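[09:14] KT: can someone run the structure on this one? pasting the chain below
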Amino acid sequence: MHKDRFAYTLFLSISFHLVILIGLSLEIAQRKFVNLGSNLTNNSKIENFSVEVKGLALQMDSRPNLDSMIVELKKKISDHNQDLRIRPRRDTITAVSAHSKQTLYLEKWRQRVEEVGNFHYPDEARKNKIFGSLRILVAIQVDGNVEDFRIMESSGSQILDEAAEKIVALAAPFDPLPEEISFETDILEIVRTWRFHEGISLKRTE
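[09:31] RB: done, structure tokens below
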């Protein structure tokens, strides 16, 4: 995600500088032709040359307005940077992909969910011995509140799916994101697979 943002900003910057270079090249070329026309004022072919210079001048005048192109590129860069400031920076992690700065937070989050999940294990699932696994995504804001909850892979049981969402809601708010994470992330998306298993408890499977 960060790489895509950087690549787009880099593309706009390069385009901006290319437009300026093209404008300078055209201006230099036009000056050379004007100077060449002045040097040939005594030449017998001045009439034909004047026609050619005028034709070239018309072609240059018909090119897109460089000032407008530069203004447009500046606006795109400004809008893009503003969009990056407004749009929350998201980072999606799993137990496998989490780096060292995120591992400790992820472990505390897991312990919290398991603690609440085992205490609030769904009675109907326990009574009817309904078991299963599901994959969930929990998006956590900097202050620890849950911004989003999604079931990415259902357990096949509505009872278990609804219980998972209820458990996350009861466990929230979680610990605020530590500075080493919030420095580059506004919303941390945690993806985990959980199993309501025969031991009548909730546990992670990864």
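[09:33] KT: thanks! The radius of gyration is 32 Å.
[09:34] RB: yep, looked fine to me
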